[in-house]
Amino acid sequence: MVDDYIQMMMVKEQIPGLSVAVVQNGKPVLMKGYGFSNVEHSVPATAQTVYEIASVGKTFTATVTMMLVEEGSISLDDAITDYLDDPPEAWHPVLIKHILSHQSGILSYTDAENYWDIARLDLSKAEILGLISDLPLKFQPGQFSAYDNTGYYLLGLMLEKVTGQSYEKLIQDRIFAPLDMKATRMNDPSQIVLHRAAGYRLRNQFLHNKPYYSPSVTYAAGGQLSSIEDMVKWEKALCKGTLLSQSSLNQMWTPHPSAQGNEWEKLKYAAGLGWFVLNYDGCRVVGHNGSILGFASNITRFIDANITIILFCNLDKIARPDAIAKEIAGYYCPSLAQLALQPPLEPHS
Fold first, then answer.
1. Residue 349 — pLDDT band, cuts 50, 70, 90?
2. N or C: which end of the chain has fewer CB within 10 A?
3. CA separation for the pair 118, 106 (Å, rounded)
């Protein structure tokens, strides 16, 4: 029973609350919450529970970017600096396609030495980028792959520049409103959000409330809230090609290896455009993990098997949310259960 497996994993990982959706052949066959969205008040987790989804939200940023590509407003071969004010000289060779596929060479601001000293502060976008803007590229764009939150932060600025809208209003108008994703929005801890989950972390094996983590440090790199109920609507749109042409979706879900070119065999995955493409014995599989203080998330789309797993939980530092998703998929599609689990995606994804 899938319920038994989920509950076993929650005990093993000490997860307070978990919400899971399984979409098979375009229809939800499981939408359920387990445990508690708020431990202190004994509030059960449900399909409507709203979580911080972290880097799973990069798929929204990438989708709106590809919408503008389809409309001819931008090109994947445009330099990101064409859309930035006073960018560092070192960033000029970075193209939009490099950012979408994590090949920009720009240091992720979350890897800056003093990042955790400032993550609780509400800073301006310039102050966030100032953590790394004076540093050289780690490598020439396109040469290697390295997970990069900075690039997706820059995509948000680019989207605002091109459309004249705030990033928040843009994704609301382009994605959330058309798909009736009423619970999905940018995170603002000061706002009242119905069904919002409390976030937790483990310290010395005891559960603690997560510390404050400023939404200014997430933005277009993963600052969204959502529920699995809403994400099922997102999945249906992906299945039907509602927001993007199938050609654009296929481009996003195709491996875009770096010049080094060994990601597919060495890592067993390669970056697509906004998604990671997983090497599962010729089966088409794409996904994205999310990790932020107090929360972990995953969406995995087993394209050829027509099954998608979406899981959100209110505990950070979950070792392999993508592994939990694959195991759940195996209960609904036995052929997937036979596939060996591949190495993990980037730890900060």
1. very low
2. N
3. 20
